[in-house]
Each structure stands twice: as C-alpha cells, then as structure tokens.
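Summary of Year 1 activities. Much of the first year was spent building the evaluation harness for sequence design. The harness presents a backbone, in tokenized form, and records the residue chosen at every position. We chose the following record to illustrate the format because it has been used consistently in internal testing since the harness was completed.
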C-alpha cells in the first residue's frame, strides 16, 4: 500500500519542535526563523487535520497525537541520514583527493597520474595543488604529499624520496664564453634559489651555500641570485637558461631525460634519510582500499629515484 506523505520540510519542522518543545530552539537548529517553523507546523496540522501542539503563553506542549508520532518521525529522519551517508560513501570510495605541493604536482605527479588511472580506471582523482596544511583526520584530503621531516602526530608517513640536491642548468650553459666545466665556473653564472633556505630551519635544507662548501668552492657569493617561492619556478628558470638551480632527482628526471636540463656536476648534498618528500595518511585510514592502492602505486612509481645518484 502506498502512503501519501506530507512535505518533508513540515515533518522536519515538527520533529525538531516536538523534540525541543520550542519553535525558537527548533528554528535555531534548522537555521530558519521561529515564524518559519510555526508556518510549517501549521501546514502539517492542516494537511493531517490533527492538532500536534498545545500553544500556551509559556510555551508549547506536544499533543497525544504528536507525542505518539514523534519517535517514529525522528527515527525516519535518522534512517534517511544514514541512507544519504551510505550513498555518499559509495561515491567517496571511487574518489581520491590528493593534497600535494605545487612543485611536486606539476613536476612529477601530473606527468605520471595517467599511469595510476590506467591501473585503477574506476577511480576519480582530485589533485589539490597547494602548500596549505590540511587536516587528514577531518578528511580535508585522503592523502597528502609534503616536504618535511615526516613526523606528524597521528599521521602515518611513507618516505618517497630524501634530500639529494645537485646543480642543473640548460645545455646552453655548457658552451659559450663561460662554459660550466668545474664548480669554480659558477662564479660566472647566476645561482637560482628556492626560498626555503632562508627560513628558521635553513641548516636542515639543501642550499647553494651548503653545496658550494661541499664542493670546496671559494669566491662565489651564495646569497646572490633570484629567489623563488616554489621549486618548479627555479627549475623552469634553469630550463630557460637564466641560471643554475639545485634540483632533486625525482623532480628533474624527466627534464634531464628530455635534454631540457643537464647535470654539470655529479656532487649532490642532503641527508636522504631525514628531510624529504613523504606520503601522509591519517593512521586510521591507512588500510582503506583507495588509499592503499594509491600508496602502493606511488611507492612503486618512485622507487627508481629513491637511491642517491652516484658521485
């Protein structure tokens, strides 16, 4: 038997008003005015032909008819809410949101993402390229890829690649009036900088100052040269022939393979076991199928870059 139902907005107004025995409190809960609640309740009473509230100067009391129905109506809305959550859960299982820094996204992830999609054709991927901190416990994103120390409370991390920074430049800089042949030749070229080395943890991050020191180069001012807020910008400036940047193998490998960049010197710096790129996941979500699938793919896809290049 099919039962014709009154408008759900009227039922919702009745349920909240009956639970609170107050139009004002129901209005606050549902983010409408008390007058709107009163109007919806009156419309429901008219539709049913039954009085649901006794309206008194000091407030409301629920009638016997309203009291008998209120638990069932409340339970009905709770079941509807559960149904909506289940429908969303099915969709969410097919959507992976990746929070990732701009440089990693543009220089590696976007170029390799089609491979992941081929492996998981039913997965809908959202790449949120931003350095803004996200709350993985609140599901602002399913996974995050970040550069740092890899220790975050309540977060499971997997090491993608550590520090192994080395100079990169356009092939054009290997020839010309001041060809790059030895590290000392850097005195004739512009050094391109990421901004991170000027922050409080500068000693933990690879910088031109540290690389020149490791190379035994004197007479080159490591503080000179353009600064960029993102690695991708410094690397692009190097591709365009504007100077020499420090690059990470994971981020510059494609440009090296395509001949857009060259590596004039083999010396690299950085501690591969400390700061680096990490995959971060809320500890309670590590075993979710879509997260486990992405984690497995990412670690396999980056495995060839995990060892430091030979000096």
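For this record, the design step produced the sequence shown next.
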């Amino acid at each position: 038997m099919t039962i014709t139902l009154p408008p759900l907005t009227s039922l919702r107004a009745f349920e909240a008003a009956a639970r609170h025995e107050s139009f004002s409190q129901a209005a606050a809960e549902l983010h409408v005015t008390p007058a709107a609640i009163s109007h919806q309740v009156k419309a429901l009473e008219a539709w049913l032909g039954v009085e649901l509230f006794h309206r008194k100067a000091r407030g409301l009391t629920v009638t016997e008819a309203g009291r008998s129905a209120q638990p069932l109506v409340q339970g009905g809305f709770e079941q509807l809410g559960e149904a909506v959550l289940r429908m969303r859960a099915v969709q969410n299982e097919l959507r992976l949101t990746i929070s990732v820094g701009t440089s990693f996204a543009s220089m590696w992830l976007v170029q390799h993402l089609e491979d992941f999609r081929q492996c998981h054709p039913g997965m809908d991927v959202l790449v949120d390229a931003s350095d803004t901190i996200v709350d993985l416990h609140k599901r602002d994103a399913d996974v995050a890829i970040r550069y740092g120390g890899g220790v975050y409370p309540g977060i499971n991390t997997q090491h993608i690649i550590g520090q192994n920074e080395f100079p990169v430049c356009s092939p054009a800089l290997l020839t010309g009036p001041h060809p790059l042949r030895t590290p000392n030749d850097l005195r004739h070229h512009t050094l391109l900088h990421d901004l991170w080395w000027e922050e409080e943890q500068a000693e933990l991050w690879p910088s031109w100052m540290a690389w020149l020191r490791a190379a035994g180069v004197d007479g080159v001012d490591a503080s000179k040269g353009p600064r960029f807020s993102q690695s991708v910008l410094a690397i692009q400036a190097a591709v365009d022939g504007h100077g020499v940047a420090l690059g990470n193998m994971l981020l510059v490998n494609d440009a090296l393979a395509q001949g857009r960049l060259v590596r004039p010197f083999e010396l690299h710096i950085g501690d591969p076991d400390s700061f680096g790129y990490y995959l971060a996941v809320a500890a309670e979500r590590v075993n979710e199928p879509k997260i486990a699938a992405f984690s497995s793919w990412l670690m396999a896809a980056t495995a060839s870059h995990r060892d430091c290049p030979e000096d």
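Residues 147 and 277 are 4 Å apart (CA to CA). Quantitative recovery figures across the full test set are reported in Table 2.
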